[in-house]
Each structure stands twice: as C-alpha cells, then as structure tokens.
Prior knowledge:
The protein has twelve helices and no strands. The N and C termini lie far apart (112 Å). It is 72% helix and 0% strand.
Amino acid sequence: MQNEKVGIGQYLKNYIQQSKEVFKHPMKLLPTVVLGIVWIVIGYFSGKMELPDWAKGVSFLTYSEGGLFGGVLGAAGGIVGKVVMAVAVNSAILPLFEKKWPFVGVAGGIKGMFSNMGKGMRRGLAPLLCGVGVALLLYGFMNISENWINSMVGIVAVVMLLQNIGNQGGFLFGLLFSLANSLTKGRVPRFATITRFLMGMTLGFTLGVGLTATGLHLCFLVGVAFLVVGIILCLFFNTKKITEEDEGQQNYQEETQNYQQAQQYYQQEPDVQVVQQSQAPQQPDVQVVQQSGPQQAPPPVPPYNA
Length: 306
C-alpha cells in the first residue's frame, strides 16, 4: 500500500477499514483491554498518592502517566503516545497467538541503518536531519514534561521505526508516501528518501530519550534546530538540481541550434564543399610509399677506372 499514489485521507480511511477486522476476533483485543485497565489504575493512584517503586516501574513500562501533565497540549500528546504504545503492545503480543516472532525486521533495520548511513550522504543529509527534527518534536509532544517515567514511548518508537526500515514497508512508509502525494499533488518521493527520513526519526527518538535521561529539557529546541537546517539543505539541493537541469537543457538547445544552422549553411552552398574537395591535393603514390616498409639504401656505385 505504501507505493500506491493515494492521498493521506484515503490511506487513513483504508487503514481504519482494515483495522476493523480486529473486532471480529475478540481475543485480539485482549492486550489493548489489559493495557487500558493498567492505565486507568496507575493514573488514578498516581494522582492520589506517591507510587511505590514497583508501580513506578509498571508506569514506566506501560506509559501510564502519559498525558497527565502539561495541560491540554500534554493531554493531546498523551493520547497520541498511548496510541503508539497500544500499537506496539499489539505488535509484540498478537504474533504470539499465530506462533510467530514479534518485531520481525528489527535486526534488519539496525543492519540497514549502519550499512546505508554513509551512502549518498550529500543528497540524503537533508531528509535525515528533517527526520531527526520531526522525531524530537514528536517525542517532546508525547512526553511534554520530558520526564523519564514517560520516556518509554520514545523507546517503543525506535523499535517500531527499526521494524519498518528492516521490512522496507509498513504503516509509516505508507503514511509518508501518501502524505507526500497529498502535499506535492501527485509527486511521490524516492523510496531511498523515505528510508533516510525514517532513519533520521530513529536517531531523533534515540536522542530524545538520551536528553531525557540527562535531565535536559531541550527536545523542542534541538528539534527545531535540526528541522530548520534540514529544510534549508533540502531547498538548497533542490535549487541546485533545478539549476543543473536548466543548464543542461540550455546547452542542449544551443547545440541543437548550432546543428540546424550548419545544416542550413551546407544546403545553401553545396558547390563550395565540392570545389574544396576537388582542390584537395592527392598523392596516393607518395602515401603508399610512405606507408610501405622502411626504405632500402641505393646500390653502391662501381669504382671508376681511368
């Protein structure tokens, strides 16, 4: 689905319709229901008392306190973060019902990032930096207080991104392709550009978790800096590409014009070419002698007898 030229609205509509199939199998809803109960219990007691250490551990692993801080903006970010967590939990548990390994492709994503990091860096630097900036802003939105207890959403995002990179497809690939199709009115980006952008997001979420661990509340500031630099490089390389294409088109037009002028000249004066060719000196014998092997010395002159 990620390679189809559909808009973002149609893509989300198709994805929601496919997700409705889960409701036909109640057992597949069990992980989401259990996770929701944990969120309600931890969220209730965290507002009433100081949680014990084991409860803080559960809150960290389940992102239970996400959205409880930061007012309306923090609540909106918490909703997005809990959707991410629910998708991650289902991706980890549901394959077990079918006797499959969860998070298939994560190892391939790690290998792909290290192997492709240095390839095409000049052209791929802009989407990479944009991905880092977007990820830092999203992480700061989902963890508005930048507290360690809500940082699990960043770790889960890294795992899911690695899975998409390793599988070379998935929801994020399709979402980005459809979003680009809507914004550019039908111009779909290259597959390598999307991959580089997701690699940047992986690095951005990793950096966000690292900044949270150090206690520095810099995710928004650093994210904006990366995003601005990435956009500037993107515009620069696009402008340079357009300039190179224009110069190549101009050179092609000049060569075509010169060729047409030469054709017109020879069509107007055909006799001049013939006369010039007839007056050209012809020395076939000399050329044959010169092209033959090395010249032999003349025979010796007999002595003169008086």
